[in-house]
Specification:
Elements (H helix, E strand, L loop, with lengths): L13 E9 L8 E11 L2 E10 L11 H4 L1 H5 L9 E4 L2 E4 L2 H18 L5 E5 L5 H15 L4 E3 L6 H11 L17 E5 L3 H4 L4 H9 L3 E5 L5 H4 L3 E3 L6 H14 L5 H7 E2 L1 H9 L3 H8 L3 H12 L4 E5 L1 H4 L4 H14 L9 E4 L6 H4 L8 E2 L3 E2 L3 H11 L13 H9 L5 E5 L3 H4 L3 H9 L3 E6 L11 E4 L8 E4 L4 E5 L12 H11 L11 H12 L11 H7 L2 E2 L25 E2 L18 E6 L15 H4 L6 E4 L1 H6 L7 E5 L4 E8 L7 E5 L28 E7 H11 L7
Parallel strand pairs: 6-7, 6-16, 8-9, 8-12, 9-10, 11-22, 12-13, 16-17, 17-18, 23-27, 24-26
Antiparallel strand pairs: 1-2, 2-3, 4-5, 4-18, 14-15, 19-20, 20-21, 23-28, 25-26, 25-28
Helix pairs in contact: 3-21, 4-21, 4-22, 5-15, 9-12, 9-13, 9-15, 17-22, 18-20
Length: 726
């Protein structure tokens, strides 16, 4: 799974170049070396690549199977190398000038006839900090629209908003990765690190060797859960109920850190009153977990001096994700386990730049440095950096899925998508597909002809991680510099460069005259200065010397803050806030028609919508198609055989996958990976219901039915007055 050590050429391989770079996938952002050379096989000369881990503070030289094979998508024959425009129903290659003119013409027409809010900008959590920053500026200065958001809305919004409310600021990890082995108890709620961030697992193995008690909360026996000391196999959607039950035990049995609570928090008395009404037996029944197991978990976390709580999408991708995370943060505050070694809270970021991507302005309500677009002082400061009037900046827009609803309603008539594949990643995909077909203009900037790009009117080829210089911020808030290791193929261009060229066509080029990525970063530093996510003290030269700097870092001659909240929190009174969280579930109600709960997640070999990993032969061979995990007793009940094709349907729609009968999932739950589009796309059935605080969709808890595909086809044919043998 993981590999370390310096790269050495294979025997018989003639190495022509060695490229130092950084993995494009998960939030660890492992450093790597890619060796490119040639070998002769049966008289045929071919190019061969080999990737190995390179020592750095986060991954310590490890590299997982995705990183080892990332070069395969970057060098794939399907890479887009020319702009494409739809003519007579087909996408055909054109010159850059024509592509840019087409975008500018359509945008200009909408700006003059419908206004700037007829144009939407849709970004991605894998874009570099420089591009994410520039995308936000492009939306607000070049276009003037308030409608900008990004796919990170589906990743980190619940944890980010919860951290901001409780602590006063959000950073993925409040502590260092190096603190994990120092913790005496670790709670992993809704996260499968062994498959999603595998190069981090040695930290947890080391913690266990040091005597740590590891608790995993997950409806499946994942590889992460298999390594735990205690696995709480929770019913999906009941995370807040479980956190409240654990907290009640901690409070009732004297594990609370009264001194910390008194000196450094607010809201404790209200929470204590609320917890008196929590019934452990009722909570256990709702969660599908025995009371004694909840007590064991609470004792394990409450009784030790150090501990860390981690959450991820299993907790956060719920319609109560924001409050569920706050319930887990109550556990951290009640025991005083934050602001010191071996303690803290961590949101396990999913995307490569999920942390930095939400800090600098591509989120609907944010300006660079984690400033608020609704705060007059923040608007004035950023406007001064950009050289525009504060009044010219638009207000807050809407979330990513809500943008799709506005497209469907024709309020947004042109959409510019950069580094994302919304046709696969959004919930309620049928609506999204219908919406995109209604657009006057759909522009997609990507490396491949993704499911979304196939629907576009203009497709722009962008550089890959091997060719694009920029900074990324990993899950612990460490800013890293990834420098281009080779030239771009064909006519592919850096994403930030494309934004500058479109801006110039819209007569806003004077605001976007950058020489290179470093030039953009210098402006980003200034725009973030004094904000919650202060990057001012970070420079490219410093990143090259130090190989990563934590934010906040307000000064070039001081280290960044590796451990947050040692003495104070970021609220004006310097205290953290307890939250009263109701003990009720967030799942969609099951019924006779839809009797099962559908949840979803990642697998080791793939990443996000699979646009990159499914084009890696080595990774695709590990998982060539999507599947559903179903418990043996559930499979017998619904007459499903192992390996047969099944249809899974909800009120929103249906999809088709192959079955895998596994005893390690709850009987009331189905699990389907999220990496496939088309008829295998799990999001054809997921819920569009949104968390009221952070607008996160309820991906993890859709009520569904399942049946063998041949029966589904027969039923459909019968409904149509036909009979079909399958």
């Amino acid at each position: 799974m993981c590999q370390s050590g310096e790269g050495k050429p294979e025997a018989g391989l003639h190495v022509s170049s060695v490229m130092d770079t950084q993995c494009p996938f998960c939030s660890v952002q492992c450093k790597m070396t890619v060796s490119a050379g040639t070998e002769t096989l049966a008289g045929i000369i071919r190019t061969v690549y080999k990737a190995e881990g390179k020592a750095n503070a986060a991954s310590q030289g490890r590299l997982c199977i995705k990183g080892m094979n990332a070069h395969q998508h970057a060098t794939h024959a399907e890479r887009l190398v020319q702009p494409l425009i739809r003519k007579e129903g087909k996408l055909v290659p054109v010159k850059w000038e024509e592509a840019l003119d087409t975008i500018a013409s359509s945008f200009s027409t909408l700006l003059s006839t419908q206004g700037p809010d007829a144009i939407g900008i849709y970004g991605g959590g894998s874009l570099s900090n420089e591009t994410a920053y520039l995308l936000g500026k492009f939306a607000r200065v070049a276009v003037g629209t308030r409608y900008i958001d990004y796919n990170g809305r589906f990743c980190m919004s619940a944890a980010a908003s919860a951290g901001s409310k409780v602590f006063g600021v959000d950073r993925g990890l409040t502590c260092r990765l190096a603190d994990i082995p120092l913790a005496r108890c670790i709670v992993l709620a809704g996260t499968n690190i062994a498959e999603c961030q595998p190069t981090l697992m040695p930290y947890f193995h080391q913690a266990k060797e040091n005597g740590a008690f590891v608790i995993v909360i997950d409806p499946r026996v994942t590889p992460t859960a298999a390594a735990a000391d205690l696995h709480l196999q929770i019913k999906p959607g009941m995370d807040a109920v479980l956190a409240n039950a654990m907290l009640k035990v901690i409070m009732d049995e004297g594990f609370a850190n009264e001194e910390f609570i008194r000196k450094r928090t607010n809201g404790y008395d209200q929470l204590l009153t609320h917890l008196k009404g929590v019934d452990l037996n009722e909570s256990a029944a709702l969660c599908g977990i025995e009371v004694e197991m909840i007590r064991q978990a609470a004792h394990a976390f409450g009784s030790v001096e150090t501990g860390i709580v981690f959450t991820a999408r299993g907790v956060e991708q719920q319609t109560d994700g924001h409050m569920a995370v706050r319930a887990f943060l109550n556990l951290v505050l009640a025991t005083g386990k934050i602001g010191r070694e071996g303690c803290g809270y961590g949101a396990i970021t999913g995307q490569g730049n999920g942390q930095g991507g939400r800090e600098h302005g591509q989120k609907a309500d944010q300006l660079p440095g984690y400033r608020s677009i609704e705060d007059e002082e923040d608007r004035a400061y950023v406007a001064s950096v950009w050289g525009v009037k504060p009044s010219s900046l638009p207000g807050k827009g809407v979330s990513a899925y809500e943008m799709m609803e506005l497209v469907h309603q024709r309020e947004i008539q042109a959409l510019f998508v950069m580094g994302s594949n919304p046709v696969v990643s959004n919930p309620n995909v049928r609506l999204v597909e219908e919406a995109l077909k209604k657009l006057n203009l759909l522009v997609v900037a990507d490396m491949f002809l993704t499911e979304t790009a196939r629907m576009a009117d203009v497709v722009l080829p962008v550089t890959s991680y091997l060719e694009n210089t920029g900074t990324m911020t990993n899950l612990e808030g460490r800013v890293l510099l990834r420098e281009a290791a080779r030239s771009a193929p064909g006519e592919a261009r850096d994403d930030w460069n494309i934004l500058c060229q479109v801006a110039a066509k819209l007569n806003k080029g004077s605001y976007f005259s950058y020489r290179d990525a470093e030039h953009i970063f210098e402006e980003l530093r200034l725009a973030s200065r004094g904000g919650p996510a202060d990057y001012y003290g970070i420079t490219y030269d410093r990143l090259r010397r130090e190989e990563g700097v934590y934010w906040p870092c307000p000064s070039t001659d001081r280290a960044g803050m590796d451990t947050m909240f040692r003495e104070t929190f970021a609220h004006s009174d310097q205290k953290a806030v307890f939250t009263v969280v109701e003990s009720c579930g967030a799942g969609e109600e099951i019924s006779e028609e839809y009797p099962l709960i559908l949840t979803n997640g990642r697998v080791l070999a793939h990443y996000l919508t699979g646009a990159q990993t499914r084009r890696s032969p080595s990774l695709a061979a590990r998982e060539i198609e999507n599947y559903v995990e179903i418990h043996p007793r559930t499979a017998r009940r619904w007459h499903i055989r192992d390996g047969e094709w099944v249809e899974i349907a909800s009120q929103r729609g249906s999809f088709t996958v192959r079955s895998r009968i596994k005893p390690h999932i709850r009987e009331d739950t189905l699990f389907v990976p999220m990496h496939w589009g088309g008829i295998q796309n799990v999001n054809r059935a997921t819920r569009p219901d949104l968390d009221p605080f952070c607008r996160m969709p309820g991906f993890k808890t859709a009520a569904v039915r399942i049946r063998p595909l041949h029966l589904a086809v027969a039923a459909t044919s019968a409904d149509n007055g036909e009979w079909s043998e399958f």
